[in-house]
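Why do we care about 3D structure at all? Because function follows from shape, and shape follows, mostly, from sequence. That is the central idea of this module. The next example makes it concrete: a single protein chain, its amino acid sequence, and then its structure expressed as tokens.
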Amino acid sequence: MKTALITGASRGLGRALADELARDGWSLVVDARDPDALRAAAAGLGPSVTAIAGDVADPAHRAALARAAGGGLDLLVNNASALGTTPLPRLADQPIGDLAAAYATNVLAPLALIQAVLPALRERRGAILNITSDAAVENYPTWGGYGSSKAALEQLSNVLAAEEPDLAVWWADPGEMRTDMLRAAGEDADAAPPPEEAAAALRRLIGDRRPSGRYRAFDLAGPR
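And the structure:
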């Protein structure tokens, strides 16, 4: 049985992707900051799930996730993200403390978790999927703080792919999704597609074990 560690799995894309992998028979280690929401999500994922509530920016929590994954990890999904200051400010007004907290969650925590589980992933010739954003590559006004953190995650992924050729390293833009995060950003989340669509596309990426690189869920989706 393959094992995946998915962060931010209580709702949105993380939960939808956990559902996809559970249906495919994967064993899962999942986390989220809200213990009640995580417990509810885990209840629908079947018996092969370990749920650990906590904040990925907390080193002790990351250590607990790595221990739970053990030596048999096939896939790490760095999905947990922080939007940062809301309403989204222009860079001229961006509180630096808020931006530092967003970088801690969106950049430093994924790298630290990668470092913690790399030995297990190398042993299984596994894969890493880092969830990024179109805001990493587009100049959307007021998205500079969040977008720059995702751009940093993309470049870390790009270099990691070169340094770890035996692993599959993907950084994927899921596109707009009907999520609480998009709503908190002030966008019309109700007009966006559900996260299950992006999750199904990412399942294809994982199942096909595409080469390392940047992918968009839109391009991975099946025929429309």
